[in-house]
């Protein structure tokens, strides 16, 4: 089995090398001039007041080889076959700045899908990734719309992002840690370019924010919050109309002075939230929760070496059994610890590793270990790249050696164009 995995990984690397050689060969002065011009990618840009308008294009084509080790509880042997999936995804939209103070951005995504997305009419998987207006002047940022609270995003290896952090092996540790892509309002104040102090607010149905994905345990009659909404929609039961999630997040991001082309950045965020399982009943129990997050990153030698560390601790109340009027004495708890290291060669590429442990106290404890190791080569600096990535997911339940949970091993390869 190990020999097969090594053979597959070697084949992927040979493929990527061949692709990069084809693209990199035969540059003339004319083609180099055209490439330099294309890197600007602005429809217009006013250097005087900073106004601009530009397209946002991100196209990725690649392949995934999935190896599942799903042992039978009875025999202890896996019955799964390997699977190879051809993948494609993209983001597109526009962004700009007007009046010398108003930023805006709109991007949509053709989703990756778990094993590829549909190409049939009416079945395409699309989502809005960003849609916001932002006042940005005098060190104050006020943002409204769909955006990511940057204080809620863990540091991660940039070489594992070949599918924009949308596959489960890169996405899940981030959302369990508290990633907040939300439809909300945010205010931040920049202090001497050394600290950014802010607060974000969102309220609505649980699908209003990516943070709801991590709010597990017994919080609705359908169990976890995210699953409750999805199951409700699948059963034509619009649970989104009477389930509400409100969250407030004070945060601070501190950046040290630069010394010898190196600096340190620290993020701290404290998410405070309340889950209302049924707006149609005043007597139901509102469930309170908190999520404390801290992240540290060292940017050494102008980004050549980047070690990082992240930790969060979450706890929230639960309902008693299926009775939404009563609270359980036991609280749901979880934490995510992640760390990694990137080595980069400016304008050429790099390699990196990211390791995350997701721990949930759901009665029996559950632990998920995520490992990503990736390598990137830039054919055209910051625009066209090839990437290979190895991923591993190991799931363990307390007291069970062969618990029936699948252990996944994947090899991804991708070509990415970014404008």
Describe what this molecule looks like in 3D:
It contains four helices and 19 strands. The protein is mostly beta strands. A 16-stranded antiparallel barrel has the order 2-3-4-5-6-7-8-9-10-11-12-15-16-17-18-19. The chain has helices spanning 2-24, 29-38, 168-177, 225-234, and strands spanning 44-45, 52-69, 83-98, 102-110, 126-137, 140-148, 181-191, 195-204, 244-255, 263-276, 286-299, 305-316, 319-320, 323-327, 332-345, 349-361, 365-380, 384-397, 407-418. Strand 11 (286-299) and strand 12 (305-316) form a beta hairpin.
Mean pLDDT: 83
Shape, principal axes of CA atoms: globular
Q: What class would the helix/strand composition place it in?
A: mainly beta
Spatial strand arrangement across the major sheet: 2-3-4-5-6-7-8-9-10-11-12-15-16-17-18-19
Q: Tell me the β content.
A: over 45%
Report Rg.
Answer: 23 Å
Question: What is the N-to-C order of secondary-structure elements (H for helix, E for strand)?
Answer: HHEEEEEEHEEHEEEEEEEEEEE
How many helical stretches? Answer: 4
The biggest beta sheet, please? Answer: 16 strands, antiparallel, barrel
Kindly report how far apart the N and C termini lie.
40 Å
SSE blueprint:
Layout: H1 2-24, H2 29-38, E1 44-45, E2 52-69, E3 83-98, E4 102-110, E5 126-137, E6 140-148, H3 168-177, E7 181-191, E8 195-204, H4 225-234, E9 244-255, E10 263-276, E11 286-299, E12 305-316, E13 319-320, E14 323-327, E15 332-345, E16 349-361, E17 365-380, E18 384-397, E19 407-418
Antiparallel strand pairs: 1-2, 2-3, 2-19, 3-4, 4-5, 5-6, 6-7, 7-8, 8-9, 9-10, 10-11, 11-12, 12-15, 13-14, 15-16, 16-17, 17-18, 18-19
């Amino acid at each position: 089995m190990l020999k097969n995995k090594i053979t597959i990984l070697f084949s992927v690397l040979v493929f990527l090398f061949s692709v990069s050689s084809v693209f990199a060969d035969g540059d003339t002065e004319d083609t180099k001039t055209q490439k330099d011009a294309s890197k600007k990618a602005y429809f217009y840009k006013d250097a005087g007041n900073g106004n601009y308008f530009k397209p946002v294009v991100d196209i990725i084509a690649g392949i995934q080889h999935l190896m599942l080790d799903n042992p039978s509880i009875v025999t202890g042997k896996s019955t799964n076959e390997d699977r190879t999936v051809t993948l494609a995804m993209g983001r597109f939209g526009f962004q700009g700045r007007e009046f010398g103070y108003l930023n805006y951005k709109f991007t949509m995504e053709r989703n990756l899908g778990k094993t590829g997305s549909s190409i049939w009419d009416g079945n395409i998987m699309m989502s809005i990734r960003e849609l916001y207006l932002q006042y940005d002047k005098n060190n104050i940022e006020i943002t409204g719309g769909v955006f990511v609270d940057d204080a809620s995003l863990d540091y991660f290896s940039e070489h594992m992002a070949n599918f924009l952090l949308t596959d489960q092996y890169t996405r899940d540790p981030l959302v369990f840690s508290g990633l907040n892509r939300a439809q909300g309002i945010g205010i931040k104040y920049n202090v001497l370019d050394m600290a950014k102090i802010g607060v974000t607010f969102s309220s609505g149905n649980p699908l209003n924010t990516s943070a709801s994905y991590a709010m597990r345990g017994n919080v609705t009659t359908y169990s976890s919050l995210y699953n409750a909404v999805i199951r409700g929609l699948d059963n034509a039961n619009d649970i989104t109309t009477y389930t509400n999630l409100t969250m407030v997040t004070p945060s601070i991001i501190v950046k040290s002075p630069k010394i010898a082309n190196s600096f340190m950045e620290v993020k701290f965020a404290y998410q405070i939230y309340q889950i209302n399982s049924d707006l149609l009943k005043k007597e139901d129990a509102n469930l309170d929760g908190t999520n404390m997050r801290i992240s540290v990153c060292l940017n050494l030698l102008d980004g050549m070496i980047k070690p990082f560390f992240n930790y969060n601790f979450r706890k929230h109340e639960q309902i008693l059994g299926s009775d939404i009027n009563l609270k359980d004495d036991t609280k749901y708890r979880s934490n995510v610890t992640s760390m990694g290291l990137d080595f980069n060669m400016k304008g050429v590429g790099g390699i990196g590793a990211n390791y995350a442990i997701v721990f949930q106290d759901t009665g029996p404890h559950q632990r998920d270990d995520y490992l990503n190791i990736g390598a990137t080569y830039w054919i055209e600096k910051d625009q066209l790249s090839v990437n290979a990535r190895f991923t591993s997911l190991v799931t363990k339940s307390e007291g069970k050696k062969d618990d029936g949970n699948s252990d996944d091993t994947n090899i991804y390869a991708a070509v990415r164009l970014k404008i």
